[in-house]
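Notes from the pairing session

We agreed to fold both candidates in a single pass and log them together. This is the raw record for the first candidate, unedited. Please don't reformat it; downstream parsing expects exactly this layout.

Candidate A
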Amino acid sequence: MGGDCKSPGSAFEGSNPSPATSNTRRSIEIEPINEEELKARLDPLSYSVLREGATERPFTGEYNDTDKVGSYRCKVCQNVLFTSETKFHSGCGWPSFYAPTADDAVTLIEDRSLAPRIRTEVRCAKCDSHLGHVFSGEGYDVPTDERWCINSVAMYLEEKK
């Protein structure tokens, strides 16, 4: 996410940037994307975040404060990324999760765009769309000590019936 995602007691600056090896790529085949069709289907902000690596403004996303139960899916390819069971309120302004649904749901890439700070970018493993970033060692009371900070506009919630 952006450089403003801090919370009280956070070790955001200088924390261990990656819960996994950087540049983690899975053996999942990336689906080809027709960018023109996708641009026509998505709203401009969603396209900018998912395909160009932009970030939505903090505290503006649809899922930042929601407690609805269900699965969060990639807005491009419908891949199941996260579930409400791993969502928590971090206070950083974006939906936060402590783990993806499966090890192969996402890929992790070393992000040096805010050098000298190194972050870990989260992408959908199925379509390679940008989702957000993951941070570890910030002291949140979650089982993994990780905060998967994900843009609301990168996903949609499929509510459990």
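Candidate B (folded immediately after A)
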Amino acid sequence: MRRRAAGLLLLAAAMAAVFVARGEAPPHPPGQWWQRAGVEPRYEDLSGLRVRYVRRGRGPTLVLLHGLASSIYTWADVIPALAEDHEVVAIDLPGFGGSDIPDDLSSSVHPATVLALMDRLGISRATLVGNSLGGVVAVVLAARHPERVRRLVLIDSAGFNLDASRRPMILRLLAFGPVAAALDALPVRRRVVTAALRQVFYERARVTPEKVEEYLAPLARPGATEAIRSLLNQPASFGLPALVREVRVPTLIVWGRNDRWIPVADADRFASAIPAARKVVLEECGHVPQEERPAEVVHLLEEFDPGR
């Protein structure tokens, strides 16, 4: 343990030595994609938190839940097509995107926020679509509130990898206080975001300047790094993976064959744990198929949950 801590401190010091003399320009204004996707940000105050979301279309409701350190932006390329036959609601989970950052971001906040927004919008039941961390939230709701979940779609979902030893190295570092503090203090966020996105995507060409800035802007907010660290240091409180076996709603599992953050073997674990779950693996695709293969993801969702 001491060796690990010393190593992480050394890495933090190395980062400081390399980057402290270099400035970092502030993030470009986010939200250039709103018009392209035909949405505009909306807000609701839920249990003292201002939560950002978008809503478009008519038909059976799809609630889209993003991953760790992500935002509504991750769904930008699938919202327009899905909204042709569905009501689409995409949420910035508390701590991320344009939603408030709670003083204490516990794992119970996200499922409670999704239910509260559904109540506020008059949505009695919905198909939940979760990527990465969003998949964890979707599983919790499907297991504990099946009356609110019509169907479940897990896209490269976390759940079987919550132990620190199974995380990507960059997330292990962020969970360590001195490294998280260094990220806040030093002009390195843009470099870290770029490096993380290059791991997340199979095709590096998809890591565009727009994408980097959209991911960077929310992480530059005061408290954003601490919110990530807080979640990473309480994985057991989600109740996964044990809770996965309590899911009984129809489930579709979509995975990128080349996901370097959560291996495709975890898709098999979800499929084995959830009765009658259907699994689809996309070739030459990484951790965020909704961004890397949007047309295929739309097709799979519409096939699994036909619209009006």
